[in-house]
Amino acid sequence: MATTAQILFVQGIGAGTHDEWDNRLFDSLRHALGDSYEVRYPRMPDEGDPSYAAWSAAIRREIAALDDGAVVVGHSLGATILVHALAERPPERDLAMIVLIAAPFVGAGGWPGDEFELSPDLGARLPRGVPVRVFHGLGDETAPPSHADLYAGVIPQARVYRLPGRDHQLNDDLGDVAAVIKLGDAPAGRGRQGASDVT
Questions:
Q1: At 184, phi and psi to the nearest 5?
Q2: 198 vs 156: CA distance, rounded Å
Q3: CB under 8 Å to 192, separation ≥6 — which residues?
Q4: Is residue 95 classed exposed, middle or buried when 0-12, 13-18 and 19+ CB atoms within 10 A define those classes?
Q5: Residue 156, Cα to own-chain centre: how many angstroms?
Q6: Could you give the C-alpha distances from 19 to 22, 45, 148, 163, in angstroms and in order?
Q7: Which whole-number Å values give the CA distances from 134 to 61, 150, 173, 177, in the listed order?
Q8: Any bridge partners for residue 40, and if so which?
Q9: I want to staple 10 with a disulfide (CB 3.0 to 4.6 A). Which of 17, 74, 125, 143 is the partner?
Q10: 58: nearest Cα among 81, 39, 77
Q11: With contact defined as beta carbons under 8 Å apart, do 186 and 197 qualify?
């Protein structure tokens, strides 16, 4: 009997984001992955006025409820908090992949913000051997595409996918992300086109 792979999708911040914005990303990812994957989409606390303490605690609880081999995915500042939490304290589960979508970089060269600031040795603090994939639309007007380069600088093991013509929500299409999750690497066909890899 085939097992169902688990995906944890962490929403971005902002009032109404869970039900009015990132729900479309969740639906796209669930549809693109198909029935072999269970995609979890928890509501994060105080999405309109988030704190790192509350969100990181919620993320850790959600990861603890997963099976080993799950994939964790975060969007926007939710991705920033996700990777910060993973670096701060090793997760209770062995992860298959960490995926950051349109993640603002908080720290030198990126956005200011002490509470969410990322460590300059972020990559060394992440779970050893777990692939990191960073997706960023080149048309993102919320978090500049240059933030993907900042992530590549502090997570040397990350592979970066720069997607032409895609906005902060990746045009509500996570097909490229699903392809990478399914293959465990670069997607074939249209998912690979226009993507730059940083290894």
A1: 75, 10
A2: 8
A3: 186
A4: buried
A5: 16
A6: 7, 13, 26, 25
A7: 23, 11, 15, 9
A8: 8
A9: 74
A10: 81
A11: yes
Which pair of structure tokens corresponds to residue 159?
Answer: 């592979």
pLDDT, average across residues 18-24: 98
pLDDT tens for 141-189 read: 999 999 999 999 999 999 999 999 999 999 999 999 999 999 874 443 3
Residue 195 confidence class, pLDDT cut points 50, 70, 90? very low
N-term to C-term CA, the chain: 35
DSSP 3-state assignment of 115?
helix
User: Looking at the DSSP assignment, which residues form a beta bridge with residue 71?
Assistant: 7, 97
Helices in 21-171 by DSSP H: which ranges?
Answer: 22-33, 52-64, 77-88, 122-125, 146-154
